[in-house]
């Protein structure tokens, strides 16, 4: 049985990744990372040259970034479904292998890893206004940090 290991990539410079994250990334056989469809993704760019030659990559492509209004019900539905799907997929992959998830910055402080690591925190269409607002702030941060990736 494997596990899901989230590695924070710091502020974006490979020289500033923690020693522990560096070690995990270089040893990883399965790596997942967020990206906009058709783009390499900033997290993947940061670790360029660090991944093993035989690593299996799982790009987690956002279903929408700027194509829909940020506050729309459809935008929130698509993102909630995306996070739920990837939480399930990562758990399935981790049933047999360790999976390293690359996350820019601090993964659990308004980072992309908050949702797949805790699907219960995904927005539930207005049931918990404070949680939805935290999620919206996280998505807005992700939208800005991933617009280049």
Mean pLDDT: 79
How many angstroms does the end-to-end distance come to? 32 Å
Structural class: alpha/beta
CATH architecture level-2 label: 3-Layer(aba) Sandwich
Q: For this structure, what is the CATH homologous superfamily?
A: Tetrapyrrole methylase, N-terminal domain
Inertia-based shape: globular
**CATH topology assignment:** Cobalt-precorrin-4 Transmethylase, domain 1
- Number of DSSP-assigned strands: 4
Biggest pleated sheet:
4 strands, parallel
Strand order within the widest sheet?
Answer: 1-4-2-3
- Please work out how many helical segments DSSP would assign: 5
Helix content: 25-40%
Radius of gyration of CA atoms, rounded to a whole number: 15 Å
Proportion in β-strands:
15-25%
CATH class assignment: Alpha Beta
Describe the SSE topology.
Elements: E1 4-8, H1 19-27, E2 30-36, H2 42-46, E3 56-62, H3 73-94, E4 99-103, H4 114-117, H5 129-146
Parallel strand pairs: 1-4, 2-3, 2-4
In short:
This protein is α/β, with parallel strands linked by helices. The protein is 39% helix and 16% strand. It is globular.
Keywords summarizing the entry:
Cobalt-precorrin-4 Transmethylase, domain 1; 149 residues; 39% helix; alpha/beta; 5 helices; 4 strands; disordered C terminus; 4-stranded parallel sheet
What does it look like?
The chain is of the alpha/beta class and 149 residues long. It has a single domain (4-146), classed as Tetrapyrrole methylase, N-terminal domain (Cobalt-precorrin-4 Transmethylase, domain 1). It has helices at residues 19-27, 42-46, 73-94, 114-117, 129-146; strands at 4-8, 30-36, 56-62, 99-103. Residues 119-128 and 141-149 have low confidence and may be disordered. The protein has a four-stranded parallel beta sheet, sandwiched between helices. Helix content is 39%, strand content 16%.
């Amino acid at each position: 049985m494997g596990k899901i290991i989230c590695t924070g990539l710091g502020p974006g410079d490979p020289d500033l990744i923690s020693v522990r994250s560096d070690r995990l990334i270089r040893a990883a056989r399965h790596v997942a990372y967020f990206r906009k469809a058709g783009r390499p993704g900033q997290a993947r760019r940061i670790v360029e040259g660090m991944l093993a030659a035989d690593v299996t990559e799982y790009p987690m492509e956002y279903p929408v970034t700027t194509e829909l209004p940020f506050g729309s019900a459809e935008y929130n539905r698509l993102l909630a479904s995306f996070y739920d799907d990837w939480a399930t997929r990562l758990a399935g992959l981790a049933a047999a292998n360790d999976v390293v998830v690359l996350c820019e910055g601090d993964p659990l402080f308004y980072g992309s890893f908050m949702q797949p690591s805790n699907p219960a925190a995904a927005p539930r269409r207005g049931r918990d206004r404070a949680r939805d607002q935290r999620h919206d702030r996280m998505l807005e941060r992700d939208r800005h940090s991933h617009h280049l990736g």
